[in-house]
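Quick one:
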Amino acid sequence: MASKNSTAIPACNRLLQKKWEEKSLQQHKMKLKQVRATVDTSAPHEYSHIRARVKQKQTEDEKLALIQKHNKELAGRMHHIMMTTGRVDHRNTYRHHRCN
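Output:
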């Protein structure tokens, strides 16, 4: 079984080997303290042309324009009916006939 201080690389001087290992361990610990995350967790960049939804606004404007056009036509028809006598004749000018 390998001892606690044994390494894979043999050394002539155990004291120097121990010093080098401690130095290497200290460097490793220092690097671990300075480690930064490599995964980007920030929010993705937002593009203004996607947020604006231009096509949706355009279709909504077209629908509103069509509704206003229909409303204007209906108002015109109602105005015409109010200003004229209309086409409905309420007088009965025909003669009554008996069925017998």
